[in-house]
Design brief:
globular, 22 helices, 3 domains, 11% strand, five-stranded parallel beta sheet, Rossmann fold, Isoleucyl-tRNA Synthetase, Domain 1, 593 residues, single chain, alpha/beta, four-stranded antiparallel beta sheet, Gyrase A, domain 2
Length: 593
């Protein structure tokens, strides 16, 4: 059916033409604020100059016209320069009839936009397990991919693994020196945890050597370069780059342990990828592009032989793109990888990088260089920047082993979900297997919702216990409401196929229908802004509204059969909308709790 905004646009356009001879094409409506009566609000200030009337008088004129000429308008009121318009119950009932049995409320048909978008998330190093910071990255990237799909785009989900470099050699060297051939099987540890153990051990022993050199009279900066462990590590990196078999075999073995560990964590978190890129395959990409850029005077060679680009006129600095020895830096690799992706996927229209805000400058430089190299698609590259995650205890440090491990955090969430569920006495009707699945559903839902309800750009403080509360703006509260609705629907012995010709619904019923109507617009806006927090806060509001309705009005005990059936259909549509919203966040909703 035609949208409310379209109905009002056409009618207001006619009103402005007939009343004032104004040919308006840019007419924007807002959702009426909660403290005022109305469904949609028109700001009248833009029309006072041409009409030579006060904002209130313009609102009165347009409101009177609409009430007389548009059957879908039931009432209006004016607050200063704001015309608040109430649509008729017939309009809202007609809308409800059109969506009450729809399973894809708020979402566009798959691939209907004709636009292909790539979302990169999860850029882990293979020298340690995933941690709390990776969790926010994973959840944000995966949810944005879901939201873009819901907007009708074809989405390619990718990851790039940083599997080479000096940091990887640190854990390799430590294992070679002190590992005694320890394996995940012999140690009983996940592979990524085992490798991370040796990364921490390297740092510990490296610091000891630095202290010894400083004690012998060396300056700290000099000691860091002269420490034997660092020299051995640099030698190992050179051997890897030269293809030394023993070094490469060790690298493959330890990386294999990490990949297996990552796969387990990804499955537990509930995310996946369509393709994974590896830095070991991409680190030399871009070097030829730099040579082409040199020939075009986009880059220049410095006296020490390194290659750079001067971006000071763009408000940035000089950036080295090749070292003096001809080796690439991160930006070189990223230039090459971006170009390769657009070659590999010719239909690709946009590339979104989900990376923390500490890399804001890096991506400004990357996109500027790609633009200077003449790639038109550079303007469609976007850095989905997000703030860091901290705990009440403060920041985390990987080298010192003080990070919050993702697997430990997930286990804590599941254990807390179990404890909370048992305390509330909600376990009687479940088998043990069902309970374990429920604890995982509640625990992961709590974690994901708490992470995603915060605007991505903001730094956030994560409190596990606060996130799992069954009341308030939390995942479990929304999950429980969905399960409650499903319980009501299971108890109802009716066929959900009625068409409602007339229903005099109350204010809360109308408010729920309006929330369902709003979902499509929220999905569109969250897709434009890459912000799952809009979805999260929307689903909390509709859930909160439904709970008010549930406590104030009877559904199954309603004596009027038409109203009872309408309320059941309203509950069903509410549950579907809640489920759709939560699924966009990557959060499962249980059928019972």
């Amino acid at each position: 059916m035609i949208s409310a905004e379209k109905v009002l646009f056409n009618s207001v356009q006619k009103a402005l033409q007939e009343l004032y001879n104004i040919n308006a094409t840019d007419i924007i409506f807002q959702k009426t604020r909660k403290e005022f009566e109305g469904d949609f609000t028109l700001v009248t200030f833009p029309y006072i100059k041409e009409t030579k009337k006060s904002p209130e008088q313009v609102g009165q004129d347009i409101g009177t016209y609409l009430e007389k000429n548009e059957k879908q308008v039931a009432d209006f009121n004016i607050v200063k320069g704001f015309l608040n318009i109430s649509l008729s119950n017939d309009f809202w009932l007609s809308y409800f009839n059109s969506v009450k049995d729809c399973t894809t409320i708020g979402m566009k048909d798959a691939n209907s936009s004709g636009r292909t978008v790539m979302v990169e998330y999860a850029s882990p190093n293979t020298n340690k397990p995933l941690h709390l910071g990776h969790i926010r990255n994973l959840l944000l990237g995966y949810s944005v991919a879901n939201i873009l799909k819901a907007n009708g785009h074809k989405v390619i989900k990718v990851s790039i693994v940083n599997d080479r470099g000096i940091h990887i050699c640190k854990s390799m060297l430590a294992w070679k020196k002190w590992g005694n051939n320890e394996t995940p099987e012999s140690s009983g540890m996940k592979g990524d945890h085992l490798v991370g153990k040796y990364y921490v051990l390297f740092d510990k022993e490296y610091k000891k050597q630095i202290e010894e050199l400083v004690g012998a009279g060396k300056k700290k900066e000099e000691a860091e370069k002269l420490a034997l462990l660092m020299l051995e590590c640099q030698d190992m990196l050179l051997k890897w780059e030269a293809g030394d078999k023993a070094t490469v075999d060790l690298w493959k073995m330890m990386n294999g342990w990490v990949y297996e560990g990552f796969a387990v964590t990804y499955k537990t978190v509930g995310v996946d990828f369509d393709k994974t890129y590896y830095e070991s395959n991409t680190y030399i990409l871009g070097k030829e592009i730099i040579q082409e850029g040199l020939a075009k005077n986009i880059f220049y060679r410095k006296e020490n032989g390194s290659v750079a680009i001067d971006l000071t006129n763009e408000g940035l600095d000089e950036k080295i793109v090749l070292r003096s020895d001809g080796t690439s830096v991160y930006i070189t690799q990223d230039i090459g990888t971006a170009i390769e992706r657009f070659k590999e996927f010719p239909a690709l229209k946009q590339l979104i990088y989900t990376v923390g805000n500490e890399q804001d400058y890096h991506f400004k430089v990357l996109f500027k260089i790609l633009n200077k190299l003449g790639y038109d698609w550079a303007k469609e590259c976007y850095h989905l920047s997000y703030g860091m995650v901290e705990l009440p205890e403060g920041k985390m440090k990987s080298r010192e082993g003080t990070v919050v491990d993702a697997d430990d955090l997930l286990k804590e969430m599941f254990d807390t979900a179990e404890e909370t569920t048992k305390d509330l006495g909600k376990v009687a009707e479940f088998t043990e297997a069902e309970l374990q699945e429920l604890y995982a559903t509640i625990g992961s839902g709590a974690l994901k919702y708490f992470m995603l309800k915060v605007d991505p750009k903001k730094k956030m403080l994560f409190n596990p216990k606060e996130s799992i509360d069954f009341n308030g703006n939390t995942g479990p509260f929304i999950q429980y409401t969905h399960a409650r609705i499903k319980s009501v629907l299971r108890k109802a012995d009716v066929k959900f196929d009625a068409f409602f010709a007339t229903v005099e619904f109350n204010s809360l019923e109308k408010e729920i229908i309006k929330w369902i109507y709003d979902f499509k617009g929220v999905v569109e806006e969250s897709g434009k802004t890459f912000s799952p927090s809009l979805i999260a806060n929307y689903v909390y509001e509709i859930t909160k509204t439904f709970n008010r309705f549930y406590h104030e009005y009877s559904i199954l005990k309603e004596e009027d059969e038409n109203i009872k059936l309408f309320r059941l259909q309203l509950a069903k549509a509410s549950a579907q909308t809640i489920a759709n919203a939560m699924n966009l966040l990557g959060i499962p909703v249980p059928e019972k709790m």
